[in-house]
Specification:
The complex is a heterotrimer of chains A (320), B (322) and C (550). By secondary structure, chain A is mainly alpha-helical. Helix content of chain A is 77%, strand content 0%. Chain C is built from 15 helices and 19 strands. In chain C, strand 4 (74-80) and strand 5 (85-90) form a beta hairpin.
């Protein structure tokens, strides 16, 4: 088990390094740099050269990479060049990450609230009409893009009922809990619903798997009540793959939050990367992508470890 | 190779061929996949016959009647009397026509991306599978891992951020915006194809008929490669169909964010983005029409993919991961 | 009370309390985050909103854009030496937020700092051809120009729109790497003489300023305002919703499509003021079709062809349709490079045909067989606000002539790159805040010099890339006219020379200037008097607010 952890950790490092190189190269190959954006209409060849030199953009690419990478290792992602001059990228990300995480967490909550009961029910009533219907509804949920769902929600609820808050925007928790939460309702539902469909399908198939297993059959044969079996063993064991799926789909949530934040104008990390792309703010784009990749890798690792801990088959060196 | 050996190889292959027919039989019986197939068919028809189906030119702008302002609601008419069945957009363009052409573009991008991803991914996966355990396999799979550590949309955004909006000029070579988007999406999805392909190749290689062919010698191996490839088709088709759904989602998300197709190109994602400004002014049709067109497409491909997967050998169905 | 009702009551109370705006806090929504709060460095609008209220200018402009001393740090001024020397009397009794006093020496510091090339001040050119700046006494400053410089007052109202304490700019940040280049000590910590002093700036969120009780004008800031928060709200819809719900009190602008609806709302005042945001089409005159290639410089046929195509474009575009469709009619059409209702605008240009399909067809035919049946070209536009929309409309307007316009939305970085580095464009849709306020200085900034504005009237100069080879003839005549006008003492004669210059610009179709957009403002009725401070520049000026009742 210890070796397993070590192996995974060691694998993560080169992945991270190569990923960072890819990110760096990608952004720097882009046409048009941050310099002209910074100067706006006041274009002047002399100023452009001066600024380029200041930003170190006239150095060879590999040197720029090493500068950036070594700073990044210390948690310094540089300073934003066009979004907010002088602001530390790390600071910007940290500030906005809390917004994104809040949306992600609330969406997960919504997803669980919808998916777990429906998944269980669906598995228990397998192949009956209600199962088919819920599967189709789940499929529909997955098929509606979350930006469309968000717009629909604004159209239906935002325009008429939640008018002042329906258009989105964000109020920090420190300012007002109520104001903050009411603006989270629509985004969480938008992102959470699509996500719930995925979780529900997973829940259902995981439960079906477990239900078909030997020890459950044995228990039923022994006459132990259906309800107690459901509660204790099936659900608990079905939750394992579900948790791993959810952990692995942190990527989906982060990607989904980009769109959700755009629709509801939430100042999160997703919104920041889009702005960064449009404004050619290299440090910001690189910082965010790297952060997301790191989060993804860390979460994957954690989930793998959790999974291997929970599932006794793996713990004792079984199938991988 | 002796007659006996040749026969047993052929027998093994024949037994395996039977699975394909079984698959088709299952598919026809599965209601879900039929519905999905039907929806996909409709979309294909719309995409192919767009110029015939659309009532107006999707970029032609019509003036609103005096005293009114675009966007106009469904069933209204332009100043010259053109009928907007599903309403007009902010420039006075017919929403129905734009939705039809937008669907065409959507499918073009989806098919193009999947095709490219297919070639890249399948090639990678097949090579890795055949050379299982060697450094080639390790290298390819590490590359796949790295690419998979980027969430799809994030990778696509980073790539598009690098290449910029609109046409891509690499010195003398000019790549159209659409081609660029197809390549970007293909890049983000090929790792999944590669993984699936490798998994399937490995599975096939564990089958009995493979052992039989190996014993049969060199000519057996040639038959073998062909057979393995043929048998990988069903699971790959399932994967492709499911990926069509996500590709449609990704490309419309990118257009929505302003990074994909650019105006005035008719694109469902762009229409949704434009619609946002008019929600509070009551122009519900501006958002609903493109949204429904996108959602139904994804739904159809999902149904089809699910149905295809369920129609496969049930053993396979449970083993194939998404 | 039952548990349930108690819970409900608490819930409602919380909800209610959270909805209450903190008393005395005036909240303003701005669309873009400020970049730099040092007035001698900033070029963006976001910073301008804050700077207007934290600093005072040396010279202010009234609502007809004439120089005034109202809310200005110059008490009076006079010209000497045939308009070659400007004597400024600095206001007494004014203190900065840091307690230091305002005097002539402080003003001299402000001017000298911008004049120093080391500081790369973007507005240095606006200060004019200064020979020397001398202090006559504690509150009197003497500025000697190299010659008569009548544009001084208007241009200085922009160049010195915020007076900083002596030494305030501090050391320029020398940090190599990123971002340090254009910042000064005031960039994130402004100190001025304005009615509000800086409190803090939370990146990506807001800038807070608070009441400065020692402001030199009685009654300003208005009673009821303890604090002002400039909240950055990037989305128009969100900002409008916040105004409607009372979460903010002033918005920086209202989207054109929503103006009518907002105007009808109770508790909200709106104003529509003709503005200075000039919408125009720039054409690359260093290459066909709207210009001539370097090998065609001396080819009169090529020059003629390019001119005909420019005239075609000029008459083919339907400005009125654009104004109606996109701006709901809230724009002022242009007939030339200046405000049409100004006495400094040539009367000969008013009433000349703008959108004229027959004329357009005529010029297209004159351009020769290669073009008469239609041709292709690109129009680049930043994908922000309405630029791509304007380009899309124009694309449709030109289709009947067989002309295919490819609209290329570009993000800002690529946009500037295309215009200044790769020169890969034929036309561009842009806008420009015309805050020169003197017709003659606009002739200079826009058409005389090769400056940061991409060299519209092309003429080769050693410091610019070869692409700007001499193309459209007449530039020499134009510059001669300007040189004569700038020293002409008689105002009427000067006007006539300016008119002639404007006519030259239009006759040669150097650019296609379409319209000035109106500034659309909205604010809550509780901010009384705010409307009086509105001007054509769309600034948010709190100095005119008389009372704030939350």
């Amino acid at each position: 088990m210890g070796i397993y952890i070590l192996k995974r950790l060691l694998l993560a490092i080169p992945t991270l390094i190569v990923a960072s190189m890819v990110i760096f190269l990608l952004i720097h190959l882009a046409p048009g740099g941050p310099v002209r954006v910074m100067l706006g209409p006041m274009q002047d060849a002399v100023l452009v050269e001066k600024l380029r030199h200041q930003l170190g953009l006239d150095l060879p690419l590999y040197q720029q990479y090493f500068r950036w990478a070594s700073k990044a290792l210390h948690g310094d992602f540089g300073i934003s060049v066009t979004i907010q001059r002088g602001a530390s990228v790390m600071g910007l990300i940290a500030q906005r990450l809390s917004v994104t995480l809040e949306v992600a967490a609330l969406s997960m909550l919504v997803a669980l609230l919808i998916a777990v009961p429906t998944g269980i029910l669906s598995a228990l009533r397998q192949n009956r009409l209600s199962d088919h219907i819920s599967r189709i509804i789940a499929l529909l949920g997955v098929s509606i893009p979350n930006f469309f769902l968000g717009i629909l929600l604004i159209l239906v609820f935002g325009v008429h009922f939640l008018r002042p808050w329906g258009a989105g925007g964000f109020v920090p928790l420190s300012k007002s809990v109520a104001d903050n939460l009411i603006r989270m309702v629509l985004p969480a539902i938008a992102l959470g619903t699509a996500y719930s469909a995925v979780v529900m399908r997973m829940m259902r198939s995981a439960m079906l798997d477990v239900m078909g297993q030997d020890y459950v059959r044995t228990a039923r044969a022994m006459g132990i009540g259906k309800a107690s079996i459901v509660r204790r063993d099936i659900v608990k064991n079905a939750l394992i793959p579900v948790i791993t799926v959810m952990g692995n789909s942190i990527g989906y949530l982060l990607g989904g939050s980009i769109v959700t934040e755009t629709v509801f104008r939430l100042p999160g990390v997703g919104n920041l990367i889009i702005t960064g792309v449009f404004r050619r703010d290299f440090p910001v784009i690189q910082g965010i992508v790297l952060t997301i990749v790191v989060i993804r890798i860390v979460v994957n690792l954690a989930v793998d470890l959790l999974y291997s801990y929970l599932d006794p088959r793996i713990r004792y060196g079984g199938v991988e | 190779m002796s007659d006996q050996q040749r026969d047993s190889t052929k027998l093994g292959i024949k037994a395996h061929r039977g699975l394909l027919q079984e698959f088709w039989h299952n598919f026809k019986r599965n209601k879900l996949s039929l519905v999905g197939g039907f929806i996909v068919l409709i979309y294909l028809i719309i995409a192919i016959f767009a110029p015939l189906l659309a009532p107006y030119n999707p970029v032609e702008q019509f003036n609103a009647p005096k005293g009114e302002h675009n966007p106009l609601s469904p069933l209204s008419r332009s100043r010259e009397g053109h009928l907007f069945l599903l309403g007009s957009d902010k420039f006075g363009r017919d929403i129905l026509s734009r939705a039809i052409y937008g669907t065409k573009t959507l499918l073009e991008i989806a098919v193009g991306s999947i095709a490219i991803a297919f070639f890249i991914g399948v090639a990678m996966g097949a090579v890795a599978g055949y050379r299982k355990g060697t450094w080639v396999d390790e290298l390819i799979m590490r590359a796949v891992d790295i690419m998979l550590s980027f969430p799809t949309l994030v990778l696509a955004i980073a790539l598009l951020g690098a290449f910029g909006i609109g046409k891509l000029r690499l010195g003398p070579i000019v790549i159209s915006n659409m081609a660029k988007i197809m390549v970007v999406i293909a890049i983000t999805y090929s790792p999944r194809f590669a993984r699936v392909m490798r998994g399937v190749v490995l599975q096939e290689m564990a089958e009995d008929y493979v052992d039989a062919a190996k014993i049969a010698g060199a000519s057996g191996r040639r038959i073998l490669s062909r057979e393995i490839l043929v048998n990988t088709i069903p699971p790959i088709m399932v994967q492709a169909s499911l990926m069509m759904a996500t590709t449609v989602l990704t490309s419309s998300s990118l257009s929505f964010l302003g990074l994909g197709l650019q105006p005035p190109h008719p694109s469902l994602g762009i229409m949704l983005n434009e619609a946002r400004d008019f929600l509070f002014l009551g122009a519900w049709w501006y958002a609903i029409v493109p949204g429904v067109f996108i959602s139904l497409a994804i739904f159809g491909f999902n149904l089809l993919g699910d149905g295809l997967r369920d129609s496969l050998d049930p053993r396979q169905a449970r083993r194939v991961h998404r | 009370m039952g548990k349930g009702r108690w819970l409900l009551a608490t819930g409602l109370a919380l909800l209610f309390a959270s909805g209450l705006v903190l008393a005395g806090e005036l909240r303003i929504g701005i669309a873009t985050e400020p970049w730099d709060l040092d007035p001698a460095i900033r070029t963006d609008t976001g910073s301008g909103y804050v700077i207007k209220n934290v600093y005072d200018p040396l010279i202010e402009l009234d609502q007809s854009n004439e120089p005034t001393t109202e809310f200005a740090l110059a008490e009076s001024w006079e010209w000497e030496n045939d308009a070659a020397t400007l004597v400024i009397h600095v206001r007494k009794g004014v203190v900065f937020h840091d307690g230091s006093k305002l005097n002539a020496s402080v003003v001299k510091y402000n001017i000298d700092w911008q004049l120093d090339d080391e500081n790369s001040a973007p507005n240095k050119g606006l200060l004019g051809p200064i020979e020397s700046v001398n202090i006559r006494d504690e509150y009197t400053l003497e500025v000697n120009f190299t010659g008569p410089f009548t544009s001084a007052l208007q241009q200085w109202s922009r160049a010195l729109d915020g007076i900083v304490p002596e030494g305030g700019h501090g050391e320029r940040s020398e940090e190599t790497g990123v971002g340090g280049f254009l910042m000064s000590e005031l960039s994130r910590n402004p100190v001025g003489t304005g009615p509000f002093k800086f409190v803090d700036w939370v990146s990506g969120s807001h800038v807070t300023v608070e009441r400065f009780d020692d402001y030199w004008v009685e009654g300003v800031p208005a009673p009821g305002i303890d604090r002002v928060v400039f909240e950055v709200i990037g989305d128009e819809a969100v900002m409008l919703a916040a105004l409607i719900s009372g979460a903010i009190h002033i918005v920086d602008k209202v989207p054109f499509r929503d103006f009518a609806t907002v105007s009808r709302m109770p508790n909200i005042e709106t104003a529509r003021i003709p503005g200075i945001q000039l919408q125009y089409i720039a054409m690359d005159q260093g290459a066909p079709p709207f210009g001539v290639g370097p090998d065609e410089n001396d080819d009169p046929a090529a020059i003629e062809r390019a001119l005909n195509l420019r005239k075609f474009l000029y008459h083919a575009i339907d400005r009125e349709e654009i104004a109606d469709e996109l701006f709901y009619g809230m724009a002022t059409l242009q007939y030339g490079p200046w405000f049409p209702d100004s006495p400094w605008f040539s009367p000969n240009l008013l009433g000349r045909p703008l959108h004229d399909p027959e004329l357009a067809r005529e010029y297209l035919n004159k351009a020769g067989p290669d073009y008469a049946d239609g041709f292709d070209f690109r129009m680049v536009a930043t994908n922000a606000q309405w630029f791509v929309d304007v380009a899309t409309l124009i694309q449709e307007q030109l289709r009947p002539y067989g002309v295919k316009v490819e609209v290329i939305p570009l993000d800002k970085a690529a946009f500037f790159d295309t215009l200044y580095e790769t020169f890969d464009w034929e036309t561009g849709m842009e806008d420009w805040g015309l805050n020169n306020f003197l017709a003659i200085s606009w002739m200079f900034s826009g058409y005389y010099r090769n400056n940061h504005n991409h060299n519209h009237w092309h003429h080769a100069t050693p410091d610019l890339p070869e692409h700007y080879h001499a193309t459209t003839p007449g530039h020499d005549t134009f510059t001669a006219l300007y040189d004569e006008a700038i020293v002409e003492p008689d105002e009427q004669r000067r006007k006539e020379l300016v008119w002639e210059m404007q006519e030259m610009v239009v006759d040669n179709v150097i650019r296609i200037e379409m319209m000035f957009l109106d500034n659309l403002h909205a604010w809550r009725s509780s901010v009384k008097g705010f409307g009086d401070g509105l001007n054509s520049q769309g600034e948010i000026n709190l100095k005119y607010v008389t009372e704030f009742t939350g």
